[in-house]
Amino acid sequence: MTIGEVVFLLLGVLAGGLVVLGPGRRWSLAGLVLAYLTQALILEASGASIAAGAKLIAGWIACAILFMTVGRQPEARLGPGSGWSFRGLAVLLVALAAGGLGLNGWATMAQIPPAPASISGLWMGVGLLGLGMAGDAFGAGVALLLAMAGFEAAYGLMETSLAVLALLAMIQVGVALVVSYMTQVAEARSGDEAKSG
Amino acid sequence: MSAPMLLVVATVLLTGVALGMGRRPRAMAWIAGGGAGTLGMAVLLVPADASLTLFGVGIKFSSQVQLLGRAMVLNAANRGLVAFLFLAAAFLFLGGWAASPGRHFYWAGLAMVASLACSLMIEPFLYAAVFLMVSAMTGALMLAETHAPAQRGAIRLLAYYTLAMMAILLAGWLLERTGVSAGAPELTRRTGLLLALGVAVVLLVPPFHLWVPAAMDESHPYNVAFLVLLMNAAGLFFLLRLLEANAWLREVPSFLSFFRVAGIGMVTYGSLTGLAQRRFGRMLAYLAVADGGAALVAISAGGASGYLLGLGLTGARVLSLGCWALGLSVLRLRHSTDDEAGMTGALVRSPWASIAALIGALGMAAYPMTCGFPGRWAVLLGHASGDVVAAALMLAGGAVAVSAVLRWTGIMAGGPRGREPHTLGRGEVLFLGGGIALCLMVGVFPQLLFPWLLRAAAGLAGLTP
After folding, report:
1. For A130, which of A36, A143, B252, B459 could close a Cys bridge (C-beta 3.0–4.6 Å)?
2. Do B141 and A171 touch (CB under 8 A)?
3. Substitution target from A128, A164, A173 for chain B, most B beta carbons within 10 A
């Protein structure tokens, strides 16, 4: 493994960890921003500059939409009783297994280099785990976007069609919009209940 | 003029009108229903790549348009299926007049129909996965109503369709780049597995059905029924096109066997779980799974008649599920809840809505004389000679589903007498009565519906004779 690949791997692990284990919504969003940056760096390193640019822009637009939804709200921090150690252990186990599976699976299927293959598997596994652990639409949405970013980190190296790239970018932004809407709906409802209760 | 582009632009314009008229839902029902119906009929009747003269002006609709290196094609192979989606949506939009669905129903529904139509028109058609994902996104918006934010159902829907998109895109890449054929067993197995996973999600094969009961608990039943009907139909069309375009897939016995076993499992599981439900709406979710399973069993039989039966069952489901959802929506408006306590005495207090819901439910359970029966009976007869166990399981599943509906009939007919009946408007009675009549008419005279469905399937030249 080259130094560049080790750096990608470290960035990927940090991004995945922040999204699922971040102590608040803004930390999760920061992890997602980092994930899109890592994804773009991976694609750029393999010579897919247009894909890298498109995915970085679309990904950060998705993050901006989500930030606008929760940016002004007070940060809901996880308390000591929220099972952080259990969550950490679960994420670690799933990350190791999914990273290994990704490494083998992507390499066998399409000769994807080790670093992007592992990161792809790791993000997909951790994203799906985060989806199950999330307690609200925002957490689930961010985890889903991480899983999609994981898929695209490897798929972007295989598929070069501009149309597919554009559609996948549109889906990223669309998912962010839907999650943003659902978060607002849920919070408006809980606000109404708090007023009436 | 490009027919696919014209169709998408017209639907998007209708979506814009629906967004702008959010405060007049009843007018919107007519506009969305009329618009979608007109577009569906135009797709069915106006020939592509042929010159037409309209008011003295010559017009030619080309069947293809190129977008960023991919083609959108509306030709004989898919026009029947696209028309089916538009006409089914039009039927449900019109029913929305009486069902009073959520404020996002019409515009999100139209946007969904546009993306599902794109999923049938895109070439290579495995990129349909991306459009199916777009339709899931609009579906999630439809479920997340202000008064009932169906977070679980909507999030599950998004998550499952994301999985399906990934699996189908990967399979598409393998098909396109590596030239999968029956002669390469390892590659065939891998591609087949990915395709089976993707198709299982869009056809509500358990556990990928779990978004439906969750959404049914929290969201408007009419919205959920719309989503189940259209997305399941698009999934079925996707499977048919997949089988048509990849002859090698039809030669892989394990691929069709998987769907056969899944279909029989769905009929059994859906019926049994439906019987155990304590909410009327959740029973709808599980009987829809059972009915979808019957269509899957028909298709997995492999012959032309099986494919046509699968389409026939899908067409009948539009009537039965639509009628049920309409009745249930009216009941929920008046009884506020659809649990056993809320539904007690509903048959006396809201007879039209209760009868519509029960007839629709009987149609889903394939009770004789209802629209679901002819197709299910034909599937059963097709299997009776070859696979007795499968036929017995399907028969038992149908009997359990009918028992579930009869159990709810008892609950709705029970309760104290002499309570004030709910009043319904003339329009609501007309819609409910129309739904009941259609369900029964197609059950007694299936020839009214099936020739249209044969026409929808006529383009699948690789599958039908």
Report:
1. A143
2. no
3. A164
